[in-house]
Amino acid sequence: MRRRWLVGTVALALLLAACGGDDDGGGAAGGGERQYKLTLIQGVKGDQFYVTMQCGAQAAAKAAGATLDVTAPDEFDASLQTPVVNAVVAKKPDAILVAPTDTKAMIPPLTQAKAAGIKLVFVDTTTENGAELAESEIASDNEEGGREAARALAELTGGKGSVLVINVKPGISTTDARAKGFEDEIKKTPGLKYIGQEYSNDKPEIAASKATAALAAHPDLVGIFGTNLFSAEGAATGLRSAGASKKVKIVGFDAGPKQVEDLDQGIVQALIAQKPADIGKAGVEQAIAALKGEPVQKKIGTGFVVVTKENMNDPDVKPFLYKSSC
Amino acid sequence: MSETREVPPAEVPDEVAPEPAGNGLRAVLRRRLTETTTWTFLILLGIVAGFAALRFQQFATVFNFRNIAADASGLLIIAVGMTFVIITSGIDLSVGSVLVFSGVIAAKVMLAIGGEGWGAIGAGLVAGLVAGLAWGVVNGVLVTKARVPPLIVTLGTLGMALGSALLITGGIDVRGVPLQLTTTIGIGQLGGVPYVVIIAAAVTAVGAVTLSMTRFGRYTYAIGSNAEAARRAGIDVDRHLIKVYALSGLLAGLAGMVSLARFATTTIGGHSTDNLAAIAAVVLGGTSLFGGIGTVLGTLVGVFIPAILQNGFVILGVQPFWQQVAVGAVLIVAVYIDQLKRRAQERGERR
After folding, report:
1. 3-class secondary structure for chain B?
2. Is A20 part of any domain?
3. B344 contacts A4? CB cut-off 8 A
4. The CATH fold of domain B37-345
5. Which residues of A touch B54 (CB under 8 A)?
């Protein structure tokens, strides 16, 4: 009996030791001044947008002599991100860079974080009261991204026919802004008729069925703007199965490896690429400025690059395609 | 349901017990259960001690434990219901979907009535609980009357409940439930303890007492040990199983209300693995998947092992993907140790 106790205890000790060791190896060499501890909480694990953001943030943290831990929930959902935020707050880093997964549901845990004396910087997404909670909100100007998409689609379609937006779901600050910007800008092209937005709930199969349904209802459909990866990709799948992929042009958002492949194969015709590495870099810089008591910029908008099959290998476009690892 | 009336031993004869009857069914059960739970509890303590040793000031704070408890409250409520189901040697895969469905129904009712008052909130909560209960009854009836295996029934209702929730909402989270619900039940505290933790603790306490001290609990064990023997002993097995699945559905509904209160949105995407998390917690807590053995207190421990691991790993800064690997490994290690222990015990008993 005593031996089994031993087995259990040793197994556990090994497990914990392994984890502890992992952490110790990650520390960066300190600079001359105080070494700030930062944590980046992404919206979801393993997404190339966030990986690219992480690359930018890590480079900036290294340059500033700060350490940066990165963590994320399994799914882009507030009920899964809340425990992660709570655990990070318990860790008491000097500042948290976070991409809130819901404009409302993430307010309580983030308010608690601020109350614990941790500086918050919101990257990409934000909350309803983001201006109060965060030292700085850094995101692509998503409305401008939507306008870029409208201009790209107007050019691709020749400015005649009906256009549709396939959005993710309501309540995501970024994608809602993209749809709004698109709606505003598309009206400037008199030949194009905006027929509204549909929601894919981030499921390609739903996006596909919404796209084919819209095609049935509006035979003059010439363009679709998918506000994120699955919305655009699902729309493309639906159009292909309906035999309309030549007639209907698709503009997608973001430039992950899969999207770039779709672009290369002619499944989508243009991508509005954000600059997530710039968001991560600016996030670290603003956090450190706030910690040092230096002035911060409350809102920072990072720009876009319109990627098409023609320009995707140009040296001034290529660096903006998203990365799977740093 | 919580009858505390003593049942004369004659009603549950010794043939129900899996063990050779020595000093009575209850004494045997109690001895066995306390011992298996102790093991996982020691593992939990070991994990807490380990993290506390590595990061004392960050990990071992009231603030941190309060948050861990609040985050685990929903899963704990589900897992209490799951404990009853698994002790009857059944399984309930539908809990996560039922949680979402109940949340959607409650939110829709609150929005339909409108306004901020407690009337709308109360009506929504009742509707949500009834919705959960209804799915539980459907599970129970299909398992007992239609004789479809529980794994299949609840796999079916998993899809049906989630599909119905998606149909009702068009796949979009329902938002805009009364703010009062969130500010009071959702994030409010009573004497420093969040309301959601109080709710989960109350469910656990009632569940533990019901399972260990009432006729309902003894029937649950008896059916899990040997359903045929229980039937011959005069227990209405079908009726009891329907009640057990109904309880699981009701508690999933309650967990849905807790989730709705905390997040003010239906979090449709966040519960696809709740069923597996609950089963893992129940098994970690020493409940046998073959039925007849288990405790609610064990499940309480089982819920907190992964919750504390996740929290501790984030504090240590372990890469997110490693957390899943480690939680899975701990599940296997914990059950392995438990098995070793149990085998030794059985050998000892047979002599």
Report:
1. CCCCCCCCHHHCCHHHCCCCCCCCHHHHHHHHHHHHHHHHHHHHHHHHHHHHHHCHHHHCCHHHHHHHHHHHHHHHHHHHHHHHHHHCCCCCCCHHHHHHHHHHHHHHHHHHHCCCCHHHHHHHHHHHHHHHHHHHHHHHHHHHCCCCCHHHHHHHHHHHHHHHHHHHHCCCCCECCCHHHHHHHHCCEECCEEHHHHHHHHHHHHHHHHHHHCHHHHHHHHHHHCHHHHHHCCCCHHHHHHHHHHHHHHHHHHHHHHHHHHHCECCHHHCCCHHHHHHHHHHHCCCCCCCCCCCHHHHHHHHHHHHHHHHHHHHHCCCHHHHHHHHHHHHHHHHHHHHHHHHHHHHHHHC
2. no
3. yes
4. ABC transporter involved in vitamin B12 uptake, BtuC (1.10.3470)
5. 16, 20
Q: How does the average pLDDT of chain B come out, rounded?
A: 86
Spatial separation of the C-alpha atoms in residues A300 and B185, rounded to whole Å: 36
Could you tell me if A187 and A197 lie in one domain?
A: yes
Q: A8: which 2 tokens? A: 């259990």
Same domain, A88 and A198: no
User: What residue segments make up the domains of chain B, in order of their start?
Assistant: 37-345
To the nearest whole Å, the CA of B210 is away from the closest chain A CA by 30
Nearest to A293 by CA among A94, A85, A111: A94
Using DSSP's 3-state secondary structure scheme, residue A247 falls into coil
* CA pair distance A30, A181, nearest whole angstrom: 44
Tell me what the mean pLDDT of segment B104-119 comes to.
89
CB crowding A266-285: b at 16 or more within 10 Å, else e:
ebbbbbbbbbbbbbbbbbbb
Mean pLDDT value of segment A81-86: 95
A217 shares a domain with A131:
no
- Report d(CA A276, CA A241) in Å as an integer: 33
How far does the CA of residue A170 sit from the closest CA of chain B (Å)? 7
H or E, element range at A164: strand A161-167
| Overall number of domains in chain A | 2
The 10 Å Cβ neighbour count of residue A74 is: 18
Q: Is residue A258 part of a domain?
A: yes
Task: Report the pLDDT averaged over residues B267-287.
Answer: 89
Decide if B175 contacts A170 (C-beta within 8 A): yes
Facing A83 at nearest CB: one of B39, B71, B175: B71
Residues A178-221 pLDDT 10s: 999 999 999 999 999 999 999 888 888 889 999 999 999 998 99
Sign of the CA dihedral with B132 first, then B138, B143, and B145 last? positive
The CATH number assigned to the domain holding A199 equals 3.40.50.2300
What is the distance in angstroms between the Cα of A291 and the nearest Cα belonging to chain B?
Answer: 20
pLDDT tens per residue, range A104-139: 889 999 999 999 999 999 999 899 899 999 999 998
CB contact under 8 A, B270 and A80: yes
Give pTM, 2 decimals. Answer: 0.74
Task: Give A155-176 pLDDT, tens digit per residue.
Answer: 999 989 999 999 998 777 789 8
Beta A119-123 vs A136-140: how paired, if at all?
A: parallel
Categorize the per-residue pLDDT at B176 as very low, low, confident or very high, splitting at 50, 70 and 90. confident
Nearest to A87 among B186, B311, B330 (CB): B311
C-alpha distances out from residue A7 to A54, A257, B40, Å? 39, 46, 14
Count CB-CB contacts under 10 A for residue A311: 13
Q: pLDDT tens across B184-220, in order? A: 888 888 888 999 999 999 999 999 999 999 999 999 9
The two tokens of residue B327 are 């939680």
Across-strand partners of A305? A273
Instruction: Find the domain containing A49 and state its range.
Output: 34-139+275-302
